[in-house]
Design goal:
The structure is a single chain. By secondary structure, the protein is of the alpha/beta class. It has one domain. It is built from 17 helices and six strands. It has a four-stranded mixed beta sheet, sandwiched between helices. The chain is globular. The two termini are 32 Å apart. It is a single-pass type II membrane protein.
């Protein structure tokens, strides 16, 4: 059974979905968040403002004002995902909206494509390298044609992509209103294990070992050797978890982006995302974004078998040695990500 179908079966609110809801209105997001409720903008009979090529339909038009009157299963699924995020934000408003106003520095993960009217919030360890490659193709105006021809290191050079924090506040507001905003998410603990494996078990990641590994070992390992304190290259997963739930860590500085929560990176309770893609349906969701952007005839999401990817089975193994107390504390850290994006509490957890 496809992951998308399983997700739909888990979501009980599909019966609320009505054609008039999708076609009658769409959500307008203001950069300065004035209300605890998302303001609503009525459908423009002439369509959403065109951001892109003259005479073409914008991604927002394709999504909210589709030419066909009957909604596709994909459109219904993405409406359900939007509803899930909105419901979680309302139900957990005290935790999810600790700050009522975002500043430009909060928007450094939102990549802007002016030519196609897209804003992509990248989340590390959720196929962000390949999506940055795609955004380079989309914004390169002919400089790139094959996403996989762009080296991963080049995709992560910040100067190669423009982010929303580089604009003035009026320009930010305009783009949040007119462009289609999307992000991709992943089961939170699978993403966390993926980050740990990549940053702490690979010998080439010496910068992470020095900056974070040495600190983690110094705080969490009794009788650590001088070599471990100097190199920081043998952090155990149990030590990593203890570091994450340590109140001192959270007071000291924000989490690194590779293990920061999605709601802290992308602010989905302040910014109304039009599409929430999932790692579990990555290719399907990615190509839907490209279809809405009008580029699917010549651009597809790169597919390749990655034998080293972190799986649910691997994640289960990593959590076997984590105490129930620490599991419970860690779940509280990532709880909003579980709730917003409709991920069940993992069966392997022993919550207190």
């Amino acid at each position: 059974m496809k992951p998308a179908l399983l997700e739909a079966m888990r979501t009980s609110r599909i019966c609320r979905m009505a054609l008039a809801t999708c076609l009658g209105s769409f959500i307008l997001v203001l950069f300065y968040f004035q209300s605890m409720l998302h303001p609503v903008m009525r459908r423009n009979p002439f369509g959403v403002d065109i951001c892109c090529r003259k005479g073409s339909r914008s991604p927002l038009q394709e999504l909210y004002n589709p030419i066909q009157l009957e909604l596709s299963n994909t459109a219904v699924l993405h409406q359900m995902r939007r509803d899930q995020v909105s419901d979680a934000c309302r139900a957990n408003s005290a935790a999810s909206r600790k700050r009522r106003v975002l500043t430009p520095s909060d928007l450094k993960h939102l990549v802007v494509d002016e030519d196609h009217g897209l804003i992509y919030c990248y989340v590390p360890k959720v196929a962000c390298t390949n999506w940055k490659r795609l955004m380079m193709v989309l914004t390169g105006r002919g400089k790139y044609s094959d996403p996989m021809g762009i080296p991963a290191s080049e995709a992560h050079v910040s100067a190669n992509l423009k982010t929303l924090n580089q604009y003035s506040i009026p320009e930010i507001n305009q783009r949040l209103k007119r462009y289609m905003k999307f992000l991709f998410v992943r089961e939170p603990f699978e993403r966390l294990v993926s980050a740990y494996r990549n940053k702490f078990t690979q010998k080439y990641n010496t910068s992470f070992h020095k900056r974070y590994g040495t600190k983690i070992i110094r705080r969490q390992r009794k009788n650590a050797t001088q070599e471990a304190l100097r190199k920081g290259d043998d952090v155990k997963f149990e030590e990593f978890v203890a570091y994450l739930i340590d109140p001192h860590t959270q007071r000291e500085e924000p989490f690194n982006e590779h293990w920061q929560t999605v709601y802290s990176l992308c602010h989905p309770c302040h910014i109304r995302y039009d599409l929430v893609g999932k790692y579990e349906t990555l290719e399907e969701d990615s190509n839907y974004v490209l279809q809405l952007a009008g580029v699917s005839s010549y651009l597809k999401f790169p597919t390749y078998a990655k034998s080293t990817r972190t799986t649910d089975e691997m994640t289960t193994e990593f959590f076997q040695n984590i105490s129930s107390e620490h599991q419970t504390q860690l779940y509280e850290v990532y709880k909003l990500d579980f709730l917003m994006f409709n991920y069940s509490v993992p069966s392997y957890l022993k919550l207190e």
